[in-house]
Amino acid sequence: MMYICPTIGEDHEKDFLVTGSLDDFKIIVFSDIDEYKKGFEYLELVDYKPTEVSDELFEELAKNDDAFNGLILNIHSENKIITKEELLI
Predict the structure, then answer these.
(1) pLDDT tens digit sequence for 6-45
(2) C-alpha–C-alpha distance, residues 89 and 34, integer Å
(3) Are 74 and 28 in contact (CB under 8 A)?
(4) Distance in angstroms (rounded) separating the CA atoms of residues 72 and 79
(5) Is 13 within the bounds of a domain?
(6) Distance separating alpha carbons of residues 36 and 25, to the nearest angstrom
(7) β-pair partners for 70
(8) Nearest to 40 by CA among 22, 10, 17
(9) Domain limits at 61?
């Protein structure tokens, strides 16, 4: 599955929009560009750009980063939590 993620930065130096703390965080993602636009407005984001990201990246994070705790999908509407464990299935 592909997600649209708000990112800031360029090339390999992009940072995701996260919530939580350094040792327990979730990444905010959107299901498509329309949901991204609605969420962008809802969160009043500035300077972030949409980046398409495969769930394979998040699977790798789930395997290799103890601080990564999952995703928040469509925070402005569904606000669905996708746990680290669900990403590894």
Answers:
(1) 999 988 899 999 999 999 999 999 999 999 999 999 999 9
(2) 27
(3) no
(4) 6
(5) no
(6) 20
(7) 83
(8) 17
(9) 2-7+19-87
Taking alpha carbons only, the member of 66, 72, 67, 58 closest to residue 28 is: 72
- pLDDT for 12: 83
Domain contains 50: yes
The pTM assigned to this predicted structure is 0.93
How far apart CA 7 and CA 47 sit, in angstroms, is 9
Q: How many Å apart are CA 30 and CA 53, to the nearest integer?
A: 10
Query: Would you say residue 71 lies in a domain?
Result: yes
Report the alpha-carbon distance of residue 34 to residue 46 in Å, rounded: 17
In a domain, 46, yes or no: yes
Cα-Cα-Cα-Cα dihedral sign, residues 49, 66, 79, 18: negative
How many structural domains is the chain composed of? 1
